[in-house]
Amino acid sequence: RKILADLAMNQPEHFAQLVAQAKEALEKGK
């Protein structure tokens, strides 16, 4: 779990993109 946090700190824009994709997938799944 610490590794994920470190990745989020090192690549905030990439992490934000992943979150956006996850939200989009959830919306499509409804």
Topology:
Layout: H1 2-10, H2 12-29
Helix pairs in contact: 1-2
Word description of this protein:
The protein has one domain. Helices cover 90% and strands 0% of the residues. By secondary structure, it is an all-alpha fold. It is elongated, with a radius of gyration of 11 Å. The model has no long low-confidence stretch (mean pLDDT 84).
Secondary structure: helix percent: over 70%
Rounded mean pLDDT score: 84
Largest sheet: none
- Uncertain segments are none
Shape: elongated
Beta-strand share of residues: under 5%
Our measurement of the CA-to-CA distance between the termini, rounded to an integer number of angstroms, reads: 28 Å
Structural class: mainly alpha
Number of helices: 2
Count of extended strands: 0
Q: How many separate structural domains? A: 1
| Elements, N to C (H/E) | HH
Question: Over the alpha carbons, how many angstroms does the gyration radius reach?
Answer: 11 Å
Task: Give the structure's gist in a few sentences.
With 30 residues, the chain is an all-alpha fold.
Task: Name the descriptors.
elongated, 30 residues, mainly alpha
